[in-house]
Design goal:
Helices cover 71% and strands 0% of the residues. It has a domain of 148 residues. The chain is built from 24 helices and no strands. With 442 residues, the chain is an all-alpha fold. Helix 7 runs antiparallel to helix 8. It is elongated. The protein starts with a helix and ends in a 5-residue tail after the last helix.
Length: 442
């Protein structure tokens, strides 16, 4: 047999093995040579190098599969890689045989390219078992396919991985799966994606899908903070402030808060204000405290508005001004927090910073009391008991005192017992019924 005859036989054997490896080639295995006219060239080159037909075929299959992978968008590549990594090859081979025999179908969620690659891997393993290729050849084949799917050189890969975390968390276009979400988040974080690092830190801080670990939380916050992530800088500051996962260090806490505050992050501005007010990690400076507090309050941060109100009340860092204090308390109260609503009600009840108005006091006490705020329930009960801002109603007074007492206010229990002496048994029973049926408003 001359060289031409041997080349023809070699080419035939190589194409047969290539067809077996790519048995599920999208356009049919008989179209491979048409779609890739260079196939015959590299087969001839391998023939000259005395490469076996099976080795030539597996290297050629790798090149073709990598070309098919290159057509995919990055997200599709990553999802396909994830499916390929999770294939149980024994089970897949059985499923493949059933599918080829028309006895079954692959799950709808499995991508077709996953099936194509899975079939190629099954065939590659069989070539190893038949000793037509070495295990090293099969491992290299597998590695090259997975490497092409990984898209590790693409700068946007981490961004796509992070978006997959969001999708799996929310079930957007994929089944909701928090374990899978955590997998994609970890990959993005490992690549240095700041938003992923921050969110992974939050997961460790709260023990969401991972064991709760303050040290790991602080570590991931630090990675993200070093990239200028404001929320991470703030949470790292909180970790240092409280000694969670890192040694307690007020100076370092203040430094981290400042980095985030200078980026306009309201919670960091408020925390930095508190540190200046208390002199923790920084020299006590009420003026600077008020400056940072105002920046946060101007952004609508409720507890910063309340703090700024208190600073105006006390004249710390700002001129004492009770009317200005009430303005900030009201802005905070309008966000629905009961503590702030109580403060506004108390100001109206005593005419401090606003004209005295029992009607307004009752309105604000009511808003807070209905959310279960004990002091507001006590004070609302007093208004009913004394008939201030509302008609006198001992039944309502007794009800609010009872609710406040249940919430732990000791004064409410004493006042309730005093009011009860002026009530009939029927009135007390009615008040107790109202208290038992009461439910807080959210």
């Amino acid at each position: 047999m001359d060289d031409q005859d041997r080349l023809r036989l070699y080419t035939k054997e190589t194409l047969e093995r290539l067809g077996c490896l790519l048995r599920l080639y999208p356009r049919g295995r008989d179209q491979i040579a048409t779609d890739y006219p260079g196939v015959l060239g590299w087969i001839k080159s391998d023939f000259a190098k005395n490469v076996s037909p099976s080795r030539s075929a597996i290297f050629g299959a790798a090149a073709i599969l990598k070309d098919l992978v290159g057509i995919l968008e990055i997200e599709q590549r990553l999802l396909t890689l994830r499916q390929v990594q999770r294939l149980d090859m024994r089970q897949f081979q059985a499923d493949l045989d059933n599918w080829m025999a028309g006895e079954d179908t692959f799950p709808q969620e499995m991508y077709f390219l996953t099936v194509v690659i899975g079939a190629a891997l099954v065939t590659a393993n069989s070539l190893v078992e038949d000793r037509e290729i070495e295990q090293a050849d099969c491992d290299l084949f597998t590695s090259e396919i997975r490497g092409a799917l990984a898209s590790e050189d693409a700068p946007e890969t981490a961004d796509v991985q992070f978006k997959l975390w969001v999708k799996y968390c929310n079930g957007e276009g994929v089944p909701q799966d928090h374990v899978e979400a955590a997998y994609w988040l970890s990959l993005a974080a490992d690549q240095g994606y700041a938003e992923a690092q921050y969110n992974l830190g939050v997961m460790y801080l709260k023990g969401l899908l991972v064991p709760q670990d303050n040290a790991k939380a602080a570590s991931w916050f630090r990675f993200a903070a070093q990239q200028g992530h404001a929320k991470a800088q703030y949470d790292l500051g909180a970790a240092y402030g409280n000694g969670y996962g890192v040694p307690q260090d007020s100076r370092e806490a203040a430094r981290c808060y400042r980095l985030a505050a200078e980026q306009g992050f309201a919670r960091a501005q408020r925390s930095l204000a508190v540190m200046y007010a208390k002199g923790e990690g920084v020299t006590r400076d009420y003026i600077t405290a008020a400056k940072w507090c105002r920046l946060a309050a101007d952004q609508g941060l409720e507890d910063a508005q309340r703090l700024l109100g208190a600073m105006y009340d006390d004249g710390r860092g700002v001129p004492q001004n009770h009317a200005e204090a009430v303005k900030w308390y009201r802005l905070a109260a309008e966000q629905g927090k009961p503590r702030d609503q109580f403060l506004v009600g108390h100001r109206y009840a005593h005419g401090k910073g606003v004209p005295k108005s029992y009607t307004e006091a009752v309105r604000w006490y009511q808003l807070a009391a209905e959310q279960g705020f004990a002091k507001a329930q006590l004070n609302l009960g007093l208004m009913y008991a004394l008939g201030k801002g509302v008609p006198q109603d001992l039944v309502r007074a007794h009800m609010w005192f009872s609710l406040s007492a249940v919430s732990g206010d000791q004064d409410a229990r004493k006042v309730r017992d005093t009011v009860a002496r002026e009530m009939t048994g029927t009135q007390i029973a009615e008040a107790q019924k109202l208290a038992a049926e009461w439910k807080p408003k959210s």
